[in-house]
Structure prediction request, 671 residues.
Amino acid sequence: MEGAVPKHAPGQSPDNVIRIRDLTFRWKLGMPQVLDLPSLVIDRGERIFIEGASGSGKSTLLSLLAGVILPERGEIQVLGERLDRLGSVQRDHFRAHHIGFVFQMFNLIPYLSVVENVLLPCRFSDQRRLRALRDADSLEAEALRLLRQLDMTDATLLRRPVTSLSVGQQQRVAAARALIGAPALLIADEPTSSLDSDRRESFIRLLFDECARAGSTLVFVSHDASLEPLFNRTVRLSEINRSAVARRAEA
Amino acid sequence: MQLLILAWKSLLNRRATALLTLLSISFSVLLLVGVERLRTEARESFANTISGTDLILGARSGAVQLLLYSVFHIGDATNNISWKSYQDIAAMPRVDWIIPLALGDSHRGFRVIGTDQGYFTHYRYGQNQSLAFARGGPFQDLYDVVVGAEVAKSLGYRLGDAVVVAHGASDVSFARHADKPFRVVGILERSGTPLDRALYVSLQAIEAIHVDWRNGGPPPPGQSIPAGQAREMDLTPRAITAALIGLKARIATFQVQRRINEYPEEPLTAILPGVALSQLWGLVGVAENALLLVSVCVVIVGLIGMLTALLSSLNERRREMAILRSVGARPAHVFALIMGEAFALTTTGVLTGVALLYAVLFSTRQLIEYRFGIHLAQTGLSAHELMLLGLVLLAGLLVGILPSYRAYRLSLADGLSIRV
Prediction:
């Protein structure tokens, strides 16, 4: 069971990319609840901005969506698959096949080249490799195409060690990696907070274009409310998370 | 395979530490296999010193002592065998050949052995090899001497050179048989055995140089007998030190041994060379095993070095693990990645260790052969050595489990959240 093909229960919209109901989470028994989400639904093709200050349960929510941790109670459905019902190996496979990630910084493996970094998801997921090969002759060609789309056109840049790239260049390599093999869901966690403010918007626009091309739904998480107008919907985590911890953080 | 490539690149990224770890593993492997190779070759060349001899005859003494002085030219006999007893034994119907040995003289640190022509025809070493001459031939005249390869090389002797034999094992001027010099007529081919480090003369020659000696001391002034005059005297040996015996049929070995041990007229001993060799090796074996133990410990130290290097790298690599997990790696992949690094380090270490071994063997082979008489064959790895290397690999993988499991636990706990 590779957890590959999303199933749809009757009465559910197949357009729900993420569907969370009555979800609670605490790190350890006896520790305070960090997440209490009555409902969160995100549809296919949405460009959603999840706004949350640190301590609002943001990284916990991302870990739950990634299938790295399991909720204490409640349902978490990604692409129609109940993650809370999958085993850890299946969740790992599911993540490899369907979710791309971009983090705040230090996204790259220092000892791999730019192209090798971009191709990493194809090493762990057959589905992403096959999808990457659908429109390209080789994996390398697809990686180069994505990098080109993301304004990484300079051939000398590609040969340099990834640690010598600027933060903005590193983030674009990370974006290419998240997008290769067209995962249905792309989660970006503060991907622009280490960029200059004038580069933020252009990076986000590149991300939008590529998500549209790959048909990926973008979930963009940030504490920076100034980016909000670029997205078609905003979810404020502090408003939907009923846990005491989150409310205290807000206060 | 993908992960092994990843592991390899990750090691290259930390090449300073990896290289040091690699060096410690390869040197420990070099030591282990080198000691093992030396052990085997030493044992081999030890056992190769004598072959084809069924019994060694000597005065009543311990088997190891008799073996040492008759074959290895180490130590001295406490008693001699009378010429009459020797002839009695030689006349036994089951005896095929017998080589007498008269010891006690030396030449500049090398033993001088009185014997007869039988030595050159019957003595066998190694895989049934007989003595061969590099130059010249056996002694014919009374004052002829045949020298071993090592003697000729280190003293620079050529055919026709004069040799003065000294009394006893130490070469001091007052105890030299300077009045009766010998002439080199033969130089033996190198055998890699103690044979290379000896000089050979006839039994009669031994008798002749001692003909004027009284009570083990040089002749009193005015009583010495010149070399020419000694030729005319009766030079029948009075006693010999030991003898090597070949039998017509091996099956009679124990029977002949018993008859010699029960010889009524003189207390004699006959030993089986093979049995005495293994007794002697048993004595040496303790030191030999200690050596092996030390080299095993060195391998363990090398592997602990790897363990330290891998474990201490883990904390700074948590981000790397988190990235790998975000692109789809399972904790099992993280485990396999660190195992891959341990495997790559140990395998490369073993391979470079073996390469170093052959480099060392190749460059020191002649030195070892000349200095210690141990012939190091340039052969491939023996099954036993391969097994040792396999054990090192296995130990490396076992050691790798610890950091791999720790990385597994860390990546389970960290998930994708990256802490700087």
In short: Chain A touches chain B through 29 residues (CB under 8 Å). Residues 197-214 of chain A form the longest helix (18 residues). Confidence is low (pLDDT under 50) at residues 1-11 of chain A. The radius of gyration of chain A is 18 Å.
